[in-house]
Write a structure and sequence with these properties.
Number of helices: 5
Order of helices and strands: EEEHEHEHHHEE
Oligomer: single chain
Number of strands: 7
Helix content: 40-55%
Radius of gyration: 17 Å
Shape: globular
Distance between the termini: 32 Å
């Protein structure tokens, strides 16, 4: 499975592509989309949209993984980041990719082992897990970490979906995921 991870940002959007085969992870490519700060907001969003479409077209991923944005201390920054994230979601969806979303805590825990890891720890673990010669820059490292998180989560999500469990990525009209908890769609188990 080829996974495209994205770390959205209005100034710099990181992307990282990995291949997985069982538990083996292999680096494919990564980089940073640098958005001109002098451009208007619509132009900046267009740069993100167009460049992520191009990355998806060139690398041909099977799925995409994106970090979920939570409220920062500055509400204006959060809104702007949400718009950059929306442009990324549109680009990935328009490219025909299923998009899986993870919190920063989930990504850090999956890659480093604890959710409060520093950026330098994430970078170092990405380097080790993908057997890279050098430590990747922050934005591509975060995107690769997001892809690694999905690589670790995908087998569990597939197993749960095969057992009649629903996740946030595969909700049906009969089921829901609340507060990050999974609910069964099999009514014979006494749950709804």
């Amino acid at each position: 499975m080829r996974i495209l991870g994205v770390d959205p940002g209005l100034r710099r959007t990181g992307f990282g592509v990995i291949d997985t085969s069982g538990s083996k992870l292999q680096y494919v490519s990564s980089g940073t989309i640098i958005v001109p700060s002098a451009a208007s907001l619509p132009e900046r969003l267009q740069v993100i949209l167009d460049n992520l479409r191009e990355v998806a077209r060139e690398t041909q991923p099977d799925v995409a993984a994106l970090e979920i944005v939570f409220v920062n201390t500055n509400p204006q920054s959060t809104l702007l980041l949400g718009q950059a994230r929306g442009a990324a979601l549109c680009a990935l969806s328009d490219s025909g990719l299923a998009v899986h979303e993870y919190t920063a805590l989930q990504i850090k825990k999956s890659v480093v082992g604890h959710g409060k890891a520093a950026k330098e720890q994430v970078q170092e673990m990405v380097k080790r897990l993908l057997s890279l010669n050098a430590t990747p820059n922050t934005d591509p490292a975060d995107a690769l970490a997001c892809a690694i998180c999905h690589a670790h989560m995908a087998p569990m999500l597939a197993a749960l979906n095969g057992q009649g469990w629903s996740t946030a990525e595969s909700r049906s009209s009969r089921s829901s995921a609340r507060g990050g908890r999974l609910r069964s769609t099999d009514t014979s188990r006494g749950q709804e």
